[in-house]
Amino acid sequence: MDTLDLAEGSQHSLGFMTQKNAARVERQRRTPITVIIGNPPYTMNQQNENDNNKNRKYEVIDERVAETYARDSKASNKTALSDPYVKFFRRATDRLQGRDGIVAFVSNNSFVNQLAFDRMRKHLLDDFTDIYHLDLHGNVRRNPS
């Protein structure tokens, strides 16, 4: 189970989940959270088990990305929005439930200037009063030295 599974609500049906663990998960889901810090995985386009970190489908989160970040996007190709770090941004924003809070993630810079992320940027601007972006110049394609 991972963090995005908590949004799905399906963890109770898993046979290996103990009653104590299911209660812990429910308590965690109900607890108000105002600070979310993480380093989401970057596994875009990994479709093969040999990649060690294949993209997973999350019905609830995938739908939230579709109805927010993907809807009305001017991009014709929106596959970049399937990257798990995008799902983690969506989940973190939803998890704040409209409360004041902080989301701090290590991620790539794709969402800053690529067309597929135009609606994601708009939603981030609508959902947060302040956004700070620190570019560590880790993109080897843009900063090969």
Q: Provide the helix percentage.
A: 25-40%
Instruction: Kindly estimate the percentage of residues that lie in beta strands according to DSSP.
Output: 5-15%
Secondary-structure content class: mainly alpha
Shape descriptor? globular
Overview of this protein structure:
- With 145 residues, the chain is mainly alpha-helical.
- Helix content is 38%, strand content 6%.
- It has a two-stranded parallel ribbon with strand order 1-2.
- Helix 3 (59-70) crosses helix 4 (84-96).
- The protein starts with a helix and ends in an 18-residue tail after the last helix.
- The model has no long low-confidence stretch (mean pLDDT 83).
Describe this protein with a few key phrases.
mainly alpha, 145 residues
